[in-house]
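Exam revision sheet. Question 4 asks you to relate a sequence to its structure. Input first:
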Amino acid sequence: MFYRPEDGHGLPHNPFNAIVTPRPIGWISTRGADGHDNLAPYSFFNAVAYVPPQVMFASTSAKEDRGDTKDSVAQIRDTGVFCVNIVEYEMRDAMNATSAFFGKEVDEFAEAGLEKAECETISCSRVAAAPANLECKLTQIVQLPGKANFAVFGEVTGVHIRDNCLKDGIFDVLTFNPLSRMGYRDYTVVREKFSLKRPGE
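Answer key, structure tokens:
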């Protein structure tokens, strides 16, 4: 089949998210100017540069109590910082719990029963037990076409790695099995890996 998105796909559910998969999940923690902590998962997330290390995530909906966006972007606008918490398979239920539409005064860490730890380089909480955390300083927020679509870019200023995830100096994803987003309500988990050498290596 072929369809133009502006004309609709005619299927029971939008296939776009199922085509661009799997996608890593950025579990974004923020702290508002009023001191309230927030934690929410975003599957439009990735690393985008090595030097300096940079990441991005995109928010694509809004809440009535935040106007044109959601809590994460609103708080990042105010403070200029955020933290990316890496999601392991064992934290899938906690991650899912934080995806609910709570009021801006609600602390998702508490709702999901997650222990907090304070970041080192920014004023923000992080998921204490996560396999890794990336502390980030906002570089830019780009408004994308479409209502409430914002891409947030940040420079990584601090990196936490859980000790048991390091094996022989390598951050080994098989020690924690990263969770990834598929289409619809589907997820997948990394349980195996293989290596490929580039031509000429």
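Marking note for examiners. Residues 111 and 122 are 23 Å apart (CA to CA).
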